[in-house]
User: Fold Acyl-CoA synthase from Streptomyces spectabilis.
Amino acid sequence: MGTDKAEGIAGLDFSSVTPEEFARIVKGLSGKDISAIATDAPLRGRVLREVFARMERQFRPEAAGTLKALIRWQVTGSEGVEDTVYETDIAEGACAVRAGRSEAEPRVTLVMGDAEFLKLVSGNANPVTLFMTRKLKVVGDVALAAGLTRYFDIPKV
Assistant:
C-alpha cells in the first residue's frame, strides 16, 4: 500500500468507529493517503461498503419528511480501478441503500472522485463548494443535491 495512514485504515474495525472518529480520520488524510486507498481495490471497496451501510443508520427521517427520491452515487475510480455505483432510495421516512445501478431513473446522480466522496460524507467538504469547483458533477435535481447532507447525521469537524 502507500502510506501509514492508509495502512491504518486497512486495519480499522469500521463497526467500532463512530461517525465523529471517521470524520477525524478522513480530515487527517492527505491526497497521497486517499490515493493509496483509492488504488487498493479491495480496501476501497470495503471503505465504500461501510460508508454506504452507515447511510441507512445515519438517515434523519424527520428531516426528509415526505421526500421521495432515488439518489445515484458514482464514485469514479482511478489508476485502473473501476467506478463504483451505489443508490440511496429515500421514501416513506426510510433510506434504503443498494450497491450497483438499478433500472430506475434517479432524481439526481452525483459523480465525484474518492477524495471528494470521503470528504463529503464525513463532513469535511461542502457539496455546494465541490459543485462550484467542478469536483462534484450533478445530473438532475441540483437543489436536492445541494441540500442532501441535511438528511443525514454528518459530524461537524
About this structure: The radius of gyration is 15 Å. The CA atoms of residues 48 and 84 lie 8 Å apart. The mean pLDDT is 89. The chain has one domain: 4-151.
